[in-house]
Amino acid sequence: MIRIAIIGMGNLGKACAELIRASQDLELVATFTRQTSLEIMDWADKIDVVLVCVGSQIDAPVVTPWLAKNFCTVDSYDNHREMAKYIESISREHQSNNNSPHSSFVIPHCSPKVNIVGVGWDPGLFSLMRIYLGAFTGTEAKTFWGPGVSLGHTNAVKSIAGVKDAIQWTIPVISENRHKRVCHVVADTAKHRFIENEIKTMPNYFAPYQTEVHFVDKIKKSHQHGGFVIAKGNGVNTKFALKLKSNPKFTAAVMLAYAKAAVKLRDEGKSGVFTVADIAPRYLADNPIALI
Amino acid sequence: MIRIAIIGMGNLGKACAELIRASQDLELVATFTRQTSLEIMDWADKIDVVLVCVGSQIDAPVVTPWLAKNFCTVDSYDNHREMAKYIESISREHQSNNNSPHSSFVIPHCSPKVNIVGVGWDPGLFSLMRIYLGAFTGTEAKTFWGPGVSLGHTNAVKSIAGVKDAIQWTIPVISENRHKRVCHVVADTAKHRFIENEIKTMPNYFAPYQTEVHFVDKIKKSHQHGGFVIAKGNGVNTKFALKLKSNPKFTAAVMLAYAKAAVKLRDEGKSGVFTVADIAPRYLADNPIALI
């Protein structure tokens, strides 16, 4: 049994918990909220992998490097443009781990850890498609998202002061090879102008896109999402299509697949920060040769 | 520049040569037929990767282990059921390489080699889809081929004594979750009965399938092929679809992508037999983090 803990019990954390409880080979040993997260340091020898289910915008860049000293982690960090910086901040903790193994922040004698970042459907499955389809067709694979709800962008809006509830719909504009982002937000009228400006100027998440902000009385909940990756070249047309009924459930499923991979990598003595691009597919299968 | 050689100058070998000539970072330094293949041993220090483009049924199981002692190779070996045995036969050469580095069959002081097997669209790209989509949906991904021409099965038919020309069409029977194999064969009438029996009883290639054999005066050439991999589970529907205008060209393109990966693996000091499942996606991209 692989012993799993979860930090962050929002939609994604709850979806992880549900899938772990339904699993034969995973055991949910502890859950933590952002607030109770300090308590996890008492659990270092009782947890194989921590699923980091806090938001990418503010919390993950703090929480994951802090955990990396002592725990194998899997997260769904989704800020593509900040990914390299995020990886670097976690890698630094690995280096300091080696340099000062008895610092007050490090549990003594802990073994090197495997930290897998950016796991879900994009980044994650779609990243893999861009790499493979791009390499095999000799072209740049094109990605379209939606129409659907983006968890990361929804959380980014929710993190703004004064936002009571929110949802972000991503709409592909295929003919123009771009997307628009539509936010539905619940907030006091006095805050509308501030919030709309905060959203539209948010770097990476909204600033580079055509963004619409609509203030509503109540959010109609949905986790529907999907998209496709297409590439054409070298005598081939390829299309990968994804339709999600539940965005958090699928992100959770991909995270759990990589949690098992993290344990295999750790047991082989490997350590460091890994994206999906750094992990050979065989780590995801019990009997890979049967699937060749 | 990566220095490439090709053994076997049929459809696949020719497609490889054409793509290499159009490439910026690959150089075609030598080509060999099955008959002139012995001459390759004079080229050991002038070739980075040998593309093994001989047939899978009879030639590759002899040629690839023989080359593995002295060369990095990439092949499109396509006999799924014999894959484990094929890998083992090449691995044995690696072991004997280590044990007797000065045997008469081994060029002295050669460095360990990277041999990548089963590269193309199936095995290859479809194998990757089965692994990823299976792992993420928690189900067994289903594969459908065609309608289209199978290169491997066509070569298997052509290898039968008395066959003057042949083509094999694979037809998906989706409602029954199976395929049928339709062979068009040119041969003298006296040989028809023997050939039909040889095809229908050929292990792995035809014996497990509903197979039709039609004798014709002339083969209508085609390389059209395609298929899809589907998986459903964990709140998601996934479908990967492939349409090939040229089967050999796309197989060649995938082989060349892995030839570049072989050089990167070799340069990292890695050696051994690799399937697509054993190679992290990052080896296929110049700047993988940009695709995450």
Description:
By secondary structure, chain A is of the alpha/beta class. Chain A is built from 7 helices and 13 strands. In chain A, the strands form 3 sheets. Chain A has a 6-stranded parallel sheet with strand order 2-1-3-4-5-13, with helices on both faces. Chain A has a 4-stranded mixed sheet with strand order 7-8-9-10, with helices on one face. In chain A, strands 6-11-12 form a 3-stranded antiparallel sheet, covered by helices on one side. In chain A, helix 1 packs across helix 7 (247-267). Chain A is globular, with a radius of gyration of 20 Å. The two termini of chain A are 27 Å apart. Strand 12 of chain A pairs antiparallel with strand 12 (236-244) of chain B, so a sheet runs across the interface.
Supply the key terms.
homodimer; about 290 residues; alpha/beta; six-stranded parallel sheet; four-stranded mixed sheet; 7 helices
Task: Give the helix/strand layout.
The structure is a homodimer of 292-residue chains.
Chain A: E1 2-7, H1 11-21, E2 26-32, E3 49-52, H2 60-68, E4 72-75, H3 83-99, E5 114-116, H4 125-137, E6 142-145, E7 148-149, H5 151-158, E8 165-173, E9 178-186, H6 192-200, E10 210-215, E11 225-233, E12 236-244, H7 247-267, E13 272-274
Parallel strand pairs in A: 1-2, 1-3, 3-4, 4-5, 5-13, 9-10
Antiparallel strand pairs in A: 6-11, 7-8, 8-9, 11-12
Helix pairs in contact in A: 1-7, 2-3
